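Supplementary material to the annual report.
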Amino acid sequence: SLPPVITIDGPTASGKGTVAHRVADALGFHYLDSGALYRLVALRSQRVGIEVDEVKDLADLAHGLHLRFRGDKIWLEGEEVSQLIRAEDIGNRASALAVHQQVREALTARQRAFRTRPGLVADGRDMGTVIFPDAPVKVFLTASVEARAERRYKQLIDKGFSANMEDLLRDLTARDARDASRAVAPLRPAQDAHLLDTSDMTVDQAVAQVLAWYGQAV
Ligand code: C5P
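Predicted assembly:
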């Protein structure tokens, strides 16, 4: 049988990365940050001069990316880009190219390959709906747009990027709208997902809740 997967989907800056990471650590599971894959396609395509609507070229690039993941670090074509891909313009570019079915398909096998023993925690937008529809535990994390903009602001400043609250609120809203309204793999809770609104929750509380759901499922 396949190793277990816990999927954690949700909108931008909902805290899913932090929660997913912590849940993975608690269980000794592997961790997949699927958004990083879209960000890597965004960075690479920007560098080689492929536009976000050149679908065939983007899909080929996504298929052929040479990646290495180790701990929190990611290498793209031999260069460590863990911080570079966190820039807000790369996130927006990722969202723009993630609307294409062919690009998503080019990344599907790569994502499923992370499902190895003893188990996986995967975060993104379509982990529970498309990539791991048979996951025993699915979580849909939300938080108010204000709470998310504040978190993203702090993250960006902590990473040494500049940030502006008004721009962030505008970009978050636009990115959510695009992710939720796209025809292919839109952002939405799986039918069997647990909903978790973390606006007024600490990370510890959110992690404890996900672990409790996992405990009930296995
Ligand atoms: O999660 P993160 O903000 O890093 O993702 C960047 C963008 O990649 C998202 O706005 C979304 O459009 C896209 N994405 C996606 N499917 C995923 C993960 C991310 O479409 N599973």
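Residues 165-181 form the longest helix (17 residues).
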